[in-house]
């Protein structure tokens, strides 16, 4: 058994390198296989932020739900999963509170995917809560994020599953919108149907049988399934049927109270070979009105009817009824109900995403920030500012005291930047030329780093830019290249004329100059004192003038020279008053398709 599970996990890992299929046990560091032959992996490779928690319970817990990851800071926290741009995927997120914090207070928080708001998660004290979305990816990364929306309610997540779907599946849906699962049910089965029977690992839950239903079992052991939505054959082994032709099948939809666009799939197959006197013909009714042409289930073959371009809510009734000429009651094998999302975002401007990716590649401390940088608003990354709109731009980087270490990479594609604050880090190398070419940049703070060299002309000649620079060992110099005024505290010189010194050390020749001057002063002082003492001894009295006039003049000249050196040095280094604060259907007719 252990060998089997190991092979399963290896196979799952190899398969996941070819597509997006992955099952992530959040908060766990283990890899294992479960009872559904699904290979699970820990979340170590997907996120390093947050706290891993293992649930304590006297009751058995499905292993992927036995751990969770909770987040107590940041606006949002995200898992990034590699995918292929333009692929159709199914994404599921699970939340099992299990009173992990001992407060008996299940939290509420927001769930996002790929920069889109998904839903407000309402967790339960002892029930598993899950959500599923089907959509076409717009980038090569899938992101699943949780965001705190209420005080003292910390978001958490138990597990994430991603499955690649065939591009033909759910083909009547808009590729710019997502299908949000409300219900997926199998009629007549007694166990959950999923991975071992469904190649795409959709979860089909057994329907609860009412008194008016009869369970039909197919006489055919192999059902032909050639539908684009690829329902598993196991669904067509059993069905619900009413007891007579006058009773219809009421379809439970689990729709919200407000009207929303819906997408529904109904699956059916005749369970027995009918004789010439028998006929089973069905019609779909919406709010009691016929909404379809009659359709006839075929023995041994899967059929499907799809309903879309319709708005509905929890008060809307959907039912399958026998056609007037039908001699047999209606039946159904399975049902899927989705709501349709708003149009999906294209995300933050791709040039800004590229620039931020360069920063993340260079600085490890930034790599754990995932999801869309700006969306959904207001859940941008904590260290950036963004414009509003469907495709926002990044206007500010607030990375002061962020622990950045190394060279500044090229992020010149971020042309909407107005503020770059990188003070108090450990940046090295020269100041990149591209910083002065950013067309909208107004403030650049590089103070408190280990930068060296001279200021590029693209910056020093930029009349719109306020620059703040210094090394860690010398004092800060603020250079206003805008020509808007501001003078230094010494000699009445303009700040733009200051020879700004970068780096952690003062040039060696300056040090030698200052030290030499001081030594000269001390030497002449000691020599003068010795001569004066000799003269006093020779004169034999303290009332006569002491010292040598030439030595006194030399001492005064040396003192003046040293003072001038120090004054001249001080004039070139100016103390910054304060670091700048971060400025933080067609025509709405129902369309139905029958597949055979």
Automatic annotation (TrEMBL):
Ranges annotated as spanning the membrane: 498-522
Presence of keyword Transmembrane helix: yes
Subcellular location per the Swiss-Prot or TrEMBL entry: Membrane
Location of the region described as Disordered in the Swiss-Prot/TrEMBL record: 475-495, 577-596
SUPFAM superfamilies: L domain-like
InterPro entries, A to Z: Leu-rich_rpt_4, LRR_dom_sf, Malectin-like_Carb-bd_dom
The Malectin-like domain, residue ranges: 24-340
Topology of this chain in the membrane: Single-pass membrane protein
Record's GO cellular component terms: membrane
Signal sequence, renumbered to the chain: 1-20
Presence of the UniProt keyword Membrane in the record: yes
Chief location category: membrane
Pfam families for this protein: LRR_4, Malectin_like
Record key words, sorted: Leucine-rich repeat, Membrane, Receptor, Repeat, Signal, Transmembrane, Transmembrane helix
Name the record gives this protein: Malectin-like domain-containing protein
